[in-house]
Amino acid sequence: MHIRVILPVIGESLLDSVRREAEAWAAPGTTIDCVSLERGTASIESEYDEALSAPGILQRIDEARADGVDGVFITCFGDPGVHAAREIIDAPVVGGFEPATLTALSLGEKVGIVTVLPNVLPMLNSLARRYTIERRIGTIRVVDLPVLGLEDHDVLLNRLFEQASDAVGKGEADVIILGCTGMLGVAEELKKRLADKGFDVPVVDPTGAAITWLESCVRLGLTPSRTTYMPPPAKDRAV
Amino acid sequence: MHIRVILPVIGESLLDSVRREAEAWAAPGTTIDCVSLERGTASIESEYDEALSAPGILQRIDEARADGVDGVFITCFGDPGVHAAREIIDAPVVGGFEPATLTALSLGEKVGIVTVLPNVLPMLNSLARRYTIERRIGTIRVVDLPVLGLEDHDVLLNRLFEQASDAVGKGEADVIILGCTGMLGVAEELKKRLADKGFDVPVVDPTGAAITWLESCVRLGLTPSRTTYMPPPAKDRAV
Amino acid sequence: MHIRVILPVIGESLLDSVRREAEAWAAPGTTIDCVSLERGTASIESEYDEALSAPGILQRIDEARADGVDGVFITCFGDPGVHAAREIIDAPVVGGFEPATLTALSLGEKVGIVTVLPNVLPMLNSLARRYTIERRIGTIRVVDLPVLGLEDHDVLLNRLFEQASDAVGKGEADVIILGCTGMLGVAEELKKRLADKGFDVPVVDPTGAAITWLESCVRLGLTPSRTTYMPPPAKDRAV
Amino acid sequence: MHIRVILPVIGESLLDSVRREAEAWAAPGTTIDCVSLERGTASIESEYDEALSAPGILQRIDEARADGVDGVFITCFGDPGVHAAREIIDAPVVGGFEPATLTALSLGEKVGIVTVLPNVLPMLNSLARRYTIERRIGTIRVVDLPVLGLEDHDVLLNRLFEQASDAVGKGEADVIILGCTGMLGVAEELKKRLADKGFDVPVVDPTGAAITWLESCVRLGLTPSRTTYMPPPAKDRAV
Amino acid sequence: MHIRVILPVIGESLLDSVRREAEAWAAPGTTIDCVSLERGTASIESEYDEALSAPGILQRIDEARADGVDGVFITCFGDPGVHAAREIIDAPVVGGFEPATLTALSLGEKVGIVTVLPNVLPMLNSLARRYTIERRIGTIRVVDLPVLGLEDHDVLLNRLFEQASDAVGKGEADVIILGCTGMLGVAEELKKRLADKGFDVPVVDPTGAAITWLESCVRLGLTPSRTTYMPPPAKDRAV
Amino acid sequence: MHIRVILPVIGESLLDSVRREAEAWAAPGTTIDCVSLERGTASIESEYDEALSAPGILQRIDEARADGVDGVFITCFGDPGVHAAREIIDAPVVGGFEPATLTALSLGEKVGIVTVLPNVLPMLNSLARRYTIERRIGTIRVVDLPVLGLEDHDVLLNRLFEQASDAVGKGEADVIILGCTGMLGVAEELKKRLADKGFDVPVVDPTGAAITWLESCVRLGLTPSRTTYMPPPAKDRAV
User: Fold this and answer.
1) Which chain A residues are closer than 8 Å to F94 by Cβ?
2) Per-residue pLDDT tens for D97-131?
3) What is the C-alpha separation between C62 and B156, in angstroms, rounded?
4) Mind telling me how many Å the CA of A132 is from chain E's nearest CA?
5) Is-above-0.80 flag for pTM?
6) Cβ-Cβ contacts under 8 Å, B135 against chain D
7) DSSP state at residue F204
8) Which of C104, D3, D123, D219 is least surrounded, with the fewest CB atoms within 10 Å of its CB?
């Protein structure tokens, strides 16, 4: 099975760590490759960034289709370009939000998300409503760190723990989701710290949830519905 | 008052008729100007088209901000780029969907939308959920004509009437909205035909609803909330 | 354009200030006149008051119809008599709640309302559900002043600011609505105080929202749907 | 126990049959008396009628309070004046809609209502939303007879059966509610006809549901919550 | 009228007090008898307990059908076995949750429930969603006492008062429901204590609500809908 | 990885085919074993059957815990015993409904389910509400065959195709779910027949969805939240 990971930002400095993380979650026999964008933004932290990155993402989707990949992970928690992508490729496509939240629904009553900056809260609330799962989202919190400031694991873990334990303690969350696909390699440690405090709740890593989601879809023979995701009519396009 | 109309497609052939239509709805004292996109698609009939047109729209928003306009109408019923735009300009910005549907809510119980092609139905359903008004949308129908095939008023009116009268007759609509900003100059005639059949229901023209909405916001001193539409953080952007 | 403002209380002492306020929001060319009730209550602060004022309001609607006015504003935030009125006049009719909240939905995610007394909270919650927008109402607060005790602008502004800034600070509101049409001439100053505290959120004045809403409907040729608001059957009525 | 039935229309011709019907449903030991209005309309078939009847109803509530009754049934399916009444009397008050629909929820999945005229559909939809039970209302149908034309039991039963059996057959109703308190003495026969057709579904008579609801509340010591139904502040009232 | 109370636990020590409590709420002429289970658990405080008690409950339902009882109360607030029971008996069947919450909806805006242990909160939230009334449940609190530890009325009342007064004070409840049918004989005293603090809100006893609900259904001739509660097909069953 | 499949019915005749089907969906390295119940019913087609089978299922869960399995699939589309099971085992547990529907949500707008008999429709509607996904379920249809009558693939496929193609054609479904885990080995052929008719929609097999769901949870280290699924308190239990 061949999964293409699209890192929807410009620059190649993060490609290696993103690919390694995706490979760590993948099943034996799954081939992962990873591309970033030619055109787009350095990170996605607003509707503005998301809009600017969309054409660059769709260019990568075009290539993925040509390459005959089996599934595509657009590695950003805001699911940028996901629905447009499904219109033009016969393979499952997910971002970070949808597989993580749907997975979480089977684990507990209220889902708590801890993301990066307050700027993205309206975007995530909009996604929750679009997917009609807003009544199960108990809280969306922030660590107040930009996407490009997540590399210090100690700071990140401390802030994640602070928000997650407060959310669970107040009854606002029964499952915690890491709300940014850039929060690499901290899910297990966060789960352990929460358990030490007496909060035995699952922690969902969005990259892991996305990779396994795609693998499941491929094994189940599932691709986007063509009555929902109709192929775009032919016309002039100059982008 | 200065309102900028952004026609979110490439090409300039439609600019004159769009500007004339907007001017026809505008109040005395409102100045309308109209621009199309440098980069984008010939029409918007899918999530794919919408995504491809977003950067071109945001470029025009940047110019609108620099020009100090009082309000912006992105003239497409799918509200492309609207939320991203609100993050970067201190003036009200609307597309076609939001002002037309909110206006309709004050006129009757169930709102019926008649749009162009089945391709855009999921997009409109998603907007309805995003705006949390989905329970009032009684039906979304199509005339099954592409955006660029709406110029024959007789065909368009016949199909609009067919769908709208069926929807009202079945109790699925109490107010009709023209679901494409390219359906110019047919609202009044459609209303008359419906009334002749005994269906005395209002018909909302999305261009008219958008222009008057913006004028009202400007007069009321209302601009996008900065706790919802936070300014995007500074970063590299290459689009 | 001729807009009739119905002040749905007995007594004429407030008529002048209400008319002046409405005129201040009206467009050039709009004629405003203003009437109060022969029968009703001194103010509306309960379902009881609202019910008692309804026949007096409908008598004024009858006159407005006879006078051929273009639109009617029943100037109370509880929308008293609005839906009954729409059954008997072919012109747009609004109260204070509906145009203010629908306008607010286009400006930010969560709407916060600051009204007069706790007595009216259930009435406003019921309206929000009737209009199916309850999921967007983040909070409804009170200044704990009766309608007839709003004339001291300093006290009113201080309490409005206290509630509004607390609501925005806690993430319960992105847009503030003045929840009583008797809170005249304080919207701009409240917005300024909030901005000084770092909360750059719009403040919607319900009188302004209602007047511009009616003007827009008149210009758009929109009147109440006769499949929702059917004319009442003929019968004996002794009121 | 003393229950006051308020027939919210002018005229006394129906008082006897309404009182007899209420007495037929009442428990031994319950005293029923019945009053109509001094001011109001001959029947209630619109928001307009409902608004005009409200002060006359509230005058009767005032008297009921003075008389120390234990519960009040305002015998109309539109629940006119019910919420205002609860603000001014320490006894349970219901109309026809609320007890019938809440009772029906415990009997089957989808509730089907068959009422009189299309004019009242928006009013009933609004009540369903106000009471937040709209998702369980599978259909609201009409017999297309005015309130004052229900006395021919054969015609009424035929039309009720036609609508109810169609609704059950199409899966839109598992429980049928008679949607007008003037549909006296037909519930049992309708249930029998439906059973003969193979539709073994309960039929709720709104008068019976209201009388037993009030009796239950009185026995349970339950009166309106004063945090929801606060007493109206003192003020001038001229109605 | 003959009502069978099923105490869905093993052991007979509580039978007398449960029967006396049910009889105290019953109308003159209602015969109450009371049985516990042969197989089941000592109390129900989890989905696990509820599942284990179901066959024992259904055995009692079979007997109730054979005995020709008029109604059945399964006296547990989690409504165990209620929906399965309705499939096999032509008489109304309720648990503690449904009649108490539906009754409460007619008394105030937000319903507050105070139950025993945090273990049952997800079960109650699930019931609220199943019955589609979750939007009216303002809060569900616990006294943090097990079902078999409720006999000390002073401790129970203190904890009920603490939670209920906090809920009302914070605007999370306008009506209080005792969230365990084992909280016998404390509703009136709790109501008094709340009133002394200035919170004039109704307190619903679930046993009283259930008994009067069944009596009303019997008098109204209402039994479970057979399009919702279809008789189970014949087959081998070995339980 | 070791997955235990619990076939929640009595009798062993189906065990082999169920195990083979589960193994066919499993990843290399996953060990599947399969048990049926000592106590229960021959099939599950009602709330009654579901309730009777619960203790037998929980006995198997106890054994699964003792055996240290990594995940449990209770192979029935009604999710019997699933939530009780999660309270007593530290491994992911699913039935057929939840993983199939959550998977379907990522593939198209409206989910259509085709199940066995009308008897189970209320049960499935209740599950949809419990999981808060009811707004995405466009239709639930039946093939009108009992669980033990599904072995004739031609009849089954014809009826599945009839219902599924009608649902897609009417716009009520964009994704089809086989609504019984006994509909073995027909998903692919149904998808092909729908595609031949021009309906290019995914068909979700609930067994496949469940097995891959469990495998994903195990790989992601996810087990039931202990703030939602609290361990049942110790007490006497005699089942």
Assistant:
1) 106
2) 999 999 999 999 999 999 999 999 999 999 999 99
3) 39
4) 15
5) yes
6) 134
7) E
8) D219
